[in-house]
Design goal:
Helices cover 22% and strands 32% of the residues. It is elongated and about 90 Å long. It contains 8 helices and 19 strands. With 324 residues, it is α+β, with helices and mostly antiparallel strands. The chain has 3 domains: 2-108, Rossmann fold; 137-176, no CATH class; 186-322, Beta Barrel (OB fold (Dihydrolipoamide Acetyltransferase, E2P)). The strands form 4 sheets. Strands 18-17-11-8-9-10-19 form a 7-stranded antiparallel beta sheet, with no helix packed on it.
Amino acid sequence: MRVCFTNLGCKLNQAEIEAMARDFAAAGHRVVASPAEADLHVVNSCTVTAAAARASRKAARRAGRGSLTVLSGCWATERPEEAARTAGVDLVVGNADKDRLLERVHAAFPAAVPAAIPPSGAEPALFAQRDLGRTLVYVTHDQVEAMSMPDRVAVLREGVVQQVDTPEAVYHRPVNRFVATVVGSPPMNFIPCTVGARNGGLLLKHALFEVELQAKGLALGESLAEGKDCLLGVRPEDVRVEATGDDAFDATVYTSEPLGGETVVDLQVGHTLVKALAPPSVGVVQDATVKIALDPARLHLFTDEGEAVLSAAGEPIFSIRPTA
């Protein structure tokens, strides 16, 4: 919202004008110089006349803006509605309420004037972005804020941009191991595998399972030549515990953390500890052997150095089967 402040009183009132302008600016509103540009015109004066107030309002109307005019000053009576009608303005605010002018204006015109924005955290940024139509650059270490607030998110590491994309793309198609680790809680699991080949296609070999790439003719380069080490990425929510089916293989329960709505299960898969998010009803016992399965439509392939090669992102390009 555009707000203009006019001081028609003594010079001492200028400090009050500046204080009110700071309050509105801190709440995400834009302070402008001319009433003709404003959605809200605040006139501060001890001796303001009705004619002066009406003149300022006419200036806004001539500019084609349906602005609100508010008078602020000690001349306000105990009947603010009557004083507003007499002066030909929308609202009268006395000296006692100057320090909460925005609150008073919002209470009088809730549809036209947004409420004050909380002073810190994610809520004011969301308010300014959605209700005031502002474009914001918001810096945070909180991944929940990073994923829930923006249209686009930039992930930085030591001041270097790693990836710029939508939150969904960053989550489902991370460009490297760092991005895949910092986005998501618990973070993505990385299972070491060895690159192989079968019938001209790519094969990822692990002691407990094999992953075959269904897409043919993919140029993988020297980083994924046969015999090279690589990393299979899978998020905890894409690991099924106590699974059945041809794609299930053995894992050992290391520990479990019941969290009420879900249970985090740490599983020993070969020499790697893998986290899984399981329903609260899962009944696992420490050191027990259970069957688990990885969702093939949510797998990620990385080089051993951590650079992303391919993410399924919902596409059926991988298939898994236990090692014979």
